[in-house]
Amino acid sequence: MSDNNIKPVEATIAELKPGMKSVNITFKVMSTSEERSVDSRRDGETYRVIDATVADSTATILMPIWNETIESIRDGETYRLTNGYTGLFKGNLRLQLGKFGSIASAEHPIDEVNETLDMSAEEHSSRF
After folding, report:
1. Into how many domains does the chain fold?
2. pTM, two decimal places
């Protein structure tokens, strides 16, 4: 079965687990890190990345934002991620845009967020 046949999953941040694919989720950007450069071991290119802390009413999670998408993300704004996925970075859960995902301004802003549950704080094994 190819990835094109995966049924989209509507999720909240607290429901995210390692290895999820085709995730649709609405979140508010709480903060972003300073931009940094990352050299790819795969193709030798240099890419730009920031880490965004994003939240909804259930929890927070870290989400790397790459290259040209950086300019479209603003602290305090609410966005809708379509066809994202979850992955692990150094054993910690991350929400990922990926090359098949898209991000757009959400129809309705998120006013209340839960910053007490950080889904990126728990360490996971690399098997999922």
Report:
1. 1
2. 0.90
Beta strand segments in 1-128, E: 9-10, 23-32, 36-39, 46-55, 60-66, 78-89, 92-96, 102-105
Residue 57, domain CATH: 2.40.50.140
CA distance 52 to 76: 11
The closest alpha carbon to 113, from 27, 9, 51, belongs to 27
Chain segment 57-100, per-residue pLDDT in tens: 999 999 999 999 999 999 999 999 999 999 999 999 999 998 89
Residue 23 belongs to domain spanning: 3-105
The residue type of 126 is: S
